[in-house]
Structures
1.
Amino acid sequence: MNNKKNFKSGFVTLIGRPNVGKSTLMNALVGQKIAITSSKPQTTRNRIQTIYTDEQGQIIFLDTPGIHKAKNKLGDYMVSTAYQTFSEVDLICFLVEADTFIGAGERAIAEALSKVRTPIFLVINKIDKVETPRLLEVIDAYKDLADFKEIIPVSALKGENTNDLINTIFKYLEEGPMYFDEDMVTDQPERQIAAELIREKALRNLSDEIPHGIAVVIERMKERTKGNLIDIDASIVCERDSHKRIIIGKQGTMIKKIGMEARKDIEVMTGVKVNLKLWVKVRKDWRDSDIMMKNFGYNEKDI
């Protein structure tokens, strides 16, 4: 329990269309890789909580799936997960890109935001990609799209203005408790983060039509008796036999690459050596199966 005077705390959701940099921003704010990132849309599937704590207080960030037009039950789940946070938080950060124009997706999100009373920040990301005149045009175009309390330009990738965002968020939060220990940066179990890190490497290495149809399941994650090595057995689940062949690659080259890259990140997370073994399984149309989605870690009450 926190006893400090003037200590503020609260929950903040990061929302926006796919691939606007929500996960990259959240990782930059907490100073550690928690959420996976990729150039492909719909990277984040579950709601992920990370925790920022300093002398001012504690902010719990909710990174949500990108809001998009759903094509299957998994897509419906992802979008509902994002919208559900609107009524659960103390502040909403609506992320947009500095190098794109307002589209139907942004307008749909703005319409949904018009129905909430929660304070809303417009966070314009990727300002490192545009010159100042263009940024001013973007601000002018967006400023009347919703009732924004603040408009804050940032570069999640470069870490520009992220401190300004943190300090401004604290101005809108009320005094409150320390919800998590000050050294915690996420409430996600290591098992779940390991699965997501493997999925990230698959997203980055596989062709466009495959990643949306994969899930990763950790079958076993056990630390050896001496405590200097963790054994992890994981399955990459896909929807077609043709996808399985691509994921494995010629003479196993692709799955070896995915495993090697994932192992390095998991070792950074755990602080010990990791023995990672990967398998590929086919589960046809799992993204439209409530049972399989539940088995693959998606919250039953949101399906």
Note: The beta strands are 8-16, 48-53, 57-63, 91-97, 120-125, 148-153, 215-223, 229-238, 273-282.
2.
Amino acid sequence: MRVSSSRLVSAVSNEGALGVIATVGLSEELPDMTPDYPTRAEIGLRQVINETRSSTSKPFGVNVMCALTNYDSLIQVSVAGGVDAIISGAGLPLRLPGLVSDPHVKLLPIVSSARAASIVCRTWKKRFSRLPDAIVVEGPLAGGHLGFSHEELENLEALQLERIVAEVLVVAREFGSIPVVAAGGVFDGTDIARFLRLGASGVQMATRFVCTHECDAADAYKQAFINCRKEDIVVIHSPVGMPARVIKNDFVERHLRGEKVNFGCPYHCLVTCEPAVAGYCIAQALVASYRGQMDKGYAMCGANAWRCDRIVSVHELMEELVEGTAAALRNQSPNHN
């Protein structure tokens, strides 16, 4: 919900990485004049793409969840807006190539297993004569919605990201050495180096970039990361129908006790949401927390959020990550004494 919007995205891209716009909730800062949610969402995304483009000449992308009811229209706005890459998960994006008319837009599905990677590759190749430009492999330590069941998450040893990445690399080679990007729990240069040496072409990071000056969320949202302890990070069942990793606060405590918040459904934004049985509106909760109203929502985070201890600039963070990766690669070199 606007945590990764134009300010953060352009700052990341200007440092040479790929900034990514989170496409959910972009309509909420618009004047409440447009009558329907899908139209507001399109206007909001178009506005953020234009703001980002005005602040960077470097490539940037968007993340569009398959579970969104307006998935198709957000993809179309992204392509029309000239984004360089579309990253898509929260379900298998099997239809994605059919929605993208521009062959220059890079398509990156998010998967959580080698089986899912194989299904995506086979489906795209058969239906669209296209393969992913890269595959993002998201492990169980990621923030937000997770591609694993609650039962699977109870046995994290069997779900190590290193193992999943290695298995997806096998699939990627079967289809012509598709680049693989490791995601979920990647915190520092040592982590990045480990996945590069394993064979990944890069990593995707989110939690570390929340604690930057350029992050578009309110200071109270960022402070929730700085203040949290390891035991404050929990996995809950989201109205999306998936497990979600969040920082525990009073709102989360009420949810875990089974309390319900009476709400209408002003969005109908998620295919999988059932307002009649959901305990709260996740869209409203995430918008509130992005604005710093933490009593009305919560912060989604990766498993290592408790390790964040200060707010830095994107430039400082990127320097730290690059230098840390280089040092770790040197130390892990077979010729290192």
Note: The chain has a mean pLDDT of 88.
3.
Amino acid sequence: MPAETILIAEDETVARLSLIELLENQGFRVIAAENGHEALSCLLQKNPDVALLDVRMPGLDGISVLRRAREAGSGTALIVMTAHGDSNIAIDAMRLGAYDYISKPIDFEQLLPLLRRALKRRILARRSDASPEPLILPAEVAPMMIGHSPAMQHVYKLIGQVAASDATVLVRGESGTGKELVVNAIHHNSLRAKGPLVKVNCAAIPETLLESELFGHEKGAFTNAMYRRIGRFEEARNGTLFLDEIGELAPALQSKLLRAVQERTIERLGSNTSIAVDLRLITATSRNLEEAVGEGKFREDLYYRLNVITIQLPPLRERRQDIPALVQHFLQRGGRRVSITPGALALLCDYHWPGNVRELENAIERAAVLARSGVIDESDIQLHPVVHREAAHWTEQISLEDGWKANLAAAEKSMVERALRKAEGNKSRAAELLGIHRRLLYEKLREYGLENEQG
């Protein structure tokens, strides 16, 4: 049986040779390209099983190669790799049909399982004689989202995968995590990008007015209804309707929304005429909807209608490695010439951020105003620690009789186990989540007998 063929498109000689050696040692047949034009030629003429495409290449960049390969009907599983990762690159790669996206420097432990999954998908596609349809996608790019942590890279991939479909999306996350940015990115990268993006905050409009706001009303439908009003569903035709804080919707409106979602028709208040609406629906919530369903406060059937695809945004405390990039973004916005000292940055990185990115943004705005000589130091950082009862209660449960070392070991083991579960057994990602070097993680795995732990 012939070996599977991998194309490596990488202009950096050392990186290319390292990848060739690694993959040949694993039994793959490897072909290499040093620039984008050569990579495209190899893709179309040699039809490899999987291609690793560097984004930054002379001639054609990796995204352009990806686009042209897909337009030509190439069935190769394409994986984009870059050291210059940002949200737009990840989203573009996934919406153009990339199999996946990986950041440089390449972690071989992460790459090899990824290649095997891509090869398995390639084999299944061949068996079903499936060939990708050429994609016609809008040229608009998503508003920039900041963060290169594994959690945010996963979010970017999901955005790219769902953008080109009309599937209903539920964006979840704590207040201040940036749910609206995700909605903007989905819309601007979708086939409806030229249509309107209509936003409604369900928690900000009184219940008595929200029905008219969503569905509109006819003249005379109620007191002071002096004219016909078009609702937000109709305004969003051929575009996207975003309903924020959907968990706050009153029960009566939940029933009406369910009908609109199911039938894609609405009726204005004061009218019995059904109006068809062609739109994509995205909702968001910071509330635990499963808990609300269990308490009878949110309709179960509506929950399942809205929860087709879920994008979960991580809280800032779970992606602290993104804080320096966010700080620089907020400092540079509006042409400011303000810098920050390492001590002040460390203070920001150590804080737990209950208000997430929005709280960080406000803290930087405040510090930039207070900064003397255009440099933010520790004295300019004003944080407002919030005492959480749950945290205080948890610490009270620690047994002093067990001693310092035993308690620390138990906490350490628990953190390692949680990180492995969250990383789905990927030890490199688990180490990154914990903010430690991989060697230290391996030492802890041996120490606590977790070498074979898969999450």
Note: The domain at 162-312 is CATH 3.40.50.300 (Rossmann fold).
